[in-house]
Amino acid sequence: MAAIAAIGVLETAYLTIAKFTTGSVICPTSGCDKVLNSPYATAFGVVPLSLLGCLAYLSIAILAFAPKFVNPETNKGLYSQLENKTWQGLFIITAAMVIFSSYLIYLMAFEIQELCIYCVSSAVFSLLLFVIVVLGHEWEDIGQLMFTGLLVTMVSSIAALGLYNSIKAPVTISTPGIVPPLVTTTSGTAEIALARYLAEIGAKEYGAYWCPHCHDQKMLFGREATKLINYFECDPKGQNSRAEICQATAANLQGFPTWEIKGQFYSGTKSLEKLAELSGYTGPQNFMK
């Protein structure tokens, strides 16, 4: 159990660090980034679920190791008491993880509709740990164990549904689609002039609400200039989605963001100087970023 939990700690720690830094992870598909940057990947929009998972795996590792620090020959009573308590704790934590993982798999399959290998592997780890806990210990009172499991199931289910409603409510009630992260930087005169010029020549930016690099591009322009860009939201669930237009030119979209400038397509986040060069912009270039 400690070995599996250690792998879980490493995995969820990596996801948490990526969430707070680049917003992108190494993955064979774009599904990982889409899932991990979706509103469902944080608790109440603040705490990454990967951080909560990391704490859960760390707790399992500690509980699994705890009895090993007591010598059963010299402290038999303490060892027996500690072992019983840690097994009970392991049962509660792993049962809650299985319930919550099942809820997250449901969201991934039916709400986000993308596959994240990290999420699937974490769900497998949770199930495997739970099976080991149930089968790896001689439980004296099976009835009490089943009652505890029922309570954990009820509490975990209520917590999961509460979290789901807190995330979905603003999306379905107050906004026409999932809102991308806010642009917090301020635009300078040069940024606004470049954005206005790009709009005038018909330049387009294709992106998605869950794409961290798209957000980086917007941050380079700043809040005011970003509003002038002819931006195409390519995810059907994104705010003001124009997925049909993106689909029509999908062969030219190798990744997000992708710029279309004078009939040519350029993939990836571009510096404002590079965009000025590609578009033939000759105005002020004393960009703030």
What does this protein look like?
This protein is α+β, with helices and mostly antiparallel strands and 289 residues long. The chain has helices at 2-20, 31-36, 49-65, 76-112, 117-135, 142-174, 189-200, 212-221, 223-226, 243-248, 272-279; strands spanning 42-43, 47-48, 204-207, 231-233, 258-261, 264-267. It folds into two domains: 2-174, VKOR domain (de novo design (two linked rop proteins), Up-down Bundle), CATH 1.20.1440.130; 189-279, Glutaredoxin (3-Layer(aba) Sandwich), CATH 3.40.30.10. The protein contains eleven helices and six strands. α1 (2-20) runs antiparallel to α3 (49-65), α4 packs antiparallel against α5 (117-135) and α4 (76-112) packs parallel to α6. The two termini are 48 Å apart. The model is unreliable at 169-175 (pLDDT under 50).
Features of the shown structure:
single chain, de novo design (two linked rop proteins), 2 domains, two-stranded antiparallel sheet, 6 strands, 289 residues, elongated, alpha+beta, Glutaredoxin, four-stranded mixed sheet
Radius of gyration, in Å, reads: 24 Å
Instruction: Write down the CATH topology of the largest domain.
Output: de novo design (two linked rop proteins)
The share of residues in helices is 55-70%
What is the helix tally? 11
Shape: elongated
Instruction: Tell me the number of strands.
Output: 6
* Low-confidence blocks of residues: 169-175
Query: Quick check: average pLDDT?
Result: 88
Strand percentage: 5-15%
CATH architecture descriptor text of the largest domain: Up-down Bundle
Largest sheet: 4 strands, mixed
Task: Give the N-to-C terminal Cα separation.
Answer: 48 Å
Q: Major sheet: order of its strands? A: 4-3-5-6
Class by SSE composition:
alpha+beta
Name of the CATH class of the largest domain: Mainly Alpha
